[in-house]
Amino acid sequence: MSTVELERPRASNYKLRVIDCDIHPAMTSWTEVHPYLERQWIEHLTVYGSHLRHAFSEALSHPRMSPDAARIDAYPEEGGPPGSSLELMKKQHLDPNGIEVGMLIPLRWNPGSQRNLDLGVALTRAMNTWQVERWVKQEPRLRASVLIAQEDTVASVAEIDARGGDPNFTQILILPKTDEPLGRRRYWPIYEAAVRNNLPITIHVGGTNGHPSTGGGWTSYYMEEHHSVAQTMQAVVASLVFEGVLERFPELRVVIMEGGLGWVPSLNARMDKHWARLRSEVPHVKKPPSEYVREQVWFSTQPMEEPATSAELIDLFDRIGWDRLLFSTDYPHWDFDDPRYAFRANLTKAQREQLLYENARKFYRLD
Amino acid sequence: MARHVVATVDQIPLDQRLLVQVNGREIGIFNVGGEYFAVGNRCPHEGASLCKGRIVGLVEATGPGDYQYSRRGELLRCPWHGWEFDLRTGRSWCEPDRTKVRSYDLKVEPGGALIEGELRAETFQVTIDKQYVVLEV
């Protein structure tokens, strides 16, 4: 008979030391990026707005659990959306939760999914500079992500090369809902640039490519759609394996961010089984698929599955590999994970430190 | 167990809440349609300040599209992950036996009774002509 844990461990006595791989900064107002945008694009946004591949400009394809998808205690007193106040972020998150380093993942405007490619490129450039000026220079614990307009490969490569030598940036951000699956050869120059600049690719839930939100079509409910991030991420991982990206770029390091974990062992087992039978269709895939995943793909913890028993979660981590897990909070979003309570498992101090800190320190080469 | 006078009734208007500290514990006191309930401020799931969450009713359905909304104002929803807690019992709606917030006994008593009894008013000077919310911790 299995044991049900009624209480999770109380906050531990030792000081938390955390690297948070997923923090969402927001703008108080759109005009915050104006200093970094060419006049043409400021006027374009004023006159036309931005244009994504779905109806209802600026809307999400489903309503969220909370307005701004945010914790309702994360609204700054001085106004502005959650994530827009550095002071509140420090007071509410960085300081009390022991965040030594936090990776910024800006989502506003979804520049990679803009239909107007030139607008998307201009926005990524502006938002990259904005991250450094508005956040990283003001708060040494924060690091920026290189946003790219991935449908314009040439411009994406130029932006990666432009930011590659800047230590303020730790990763390249791509949203998984791209025009075509991410393994397609049109995106390969991006991976080549990532390797050349020694930056990992982080694939964070999101994007609006116009395709239905699930493989089964558009959903009726947010809860129904919310699970689809796992399907989407499975499709991305399979695409990177079978289209040959991970074979062609053995130094490419990929993070699957905010896509869950529970599916990883099952995807690996299915891919390996099929590869044993169908290998000749993809002769460029030279190893069992799970080996590529094990060597080149990392997974962030939030929103983590919360099985009823500690043993189930530990088994899951065993199968994925403890060194492949990166802790993330998703601050200030509604499904935020508190580093003290996120792991519903009896972890040793060493395991906890590995998950909360050490893995990310090694992965992002922060020494 | 000690009894603590924490507020006068007019300090917690209808459908409003008051966060108090008693013996180092943060406790939220809720006025639900004139009834008063008290629960701890720590969500048992991941520790959010529970009492800052939205106060909602109970949504149920006999089938898709057939919604009933009842118990207006009697459920408290965590400001992070949205767990719903029953203010009357402290139990969460989805895992009532496993996930619950500490709830406390509350009484509303007239000032006269408090003075005649042997209670010490820790937070307020008790006057006779008012109604007081008394928390048992």
TrEMBL record, chain A:
Chain ranges of the Amidohydrolase-related domain: 19-366
GO terms (BP aspect): secondary metabolic process
Keyword Translocase: no
GO molecular function: carboxy-lyase activity; hydrolase activity
Keywords, in A-Z order: Lyase
A Pfam family hit: Amidohydro_2
Family annotation (InterPro entries): ACMSD (IPR032465), Amidohydro-rel (IPR006680), Metal_Hydrolase (IPR032466)
UniProt protein name: Amidohydrolase
Organism: Bradyrhizobium barranii subsp. barranii
UniProtKB/TrEMBL annotation, chain B:
SUPFAM superfamilies: ISP domain
Keyword set includes RNA-binding: no
Domain Rieske: residue ranges: 3-115
InterPro entries: Rieske_2Fe-2S, Rieske_2Fe-2S_sf
Claim: Nucleotide-binding is one of the keywords in the record: no
Signal peptide: none
MF-aspect GO terms: 2 iron, 2 sulfur cluster binding; metal ion binding
Origin superkingdom: Bacteria
Keywords from the UniProt entry: 2Fe-2S, Iron, Iron-sulfur, Metal-binding
Pfam assignment, any one: Rieske
Official protein name in the record: Rieske (2Fe-2S) protein
Annotated organism of origin: Bradyrhizobium barranii subsp. barranii
UniProt lineage: Bacteria, Pseudomonadati, Pseudomonadota, Alphaproteobacteria, Hyphomicrobiales
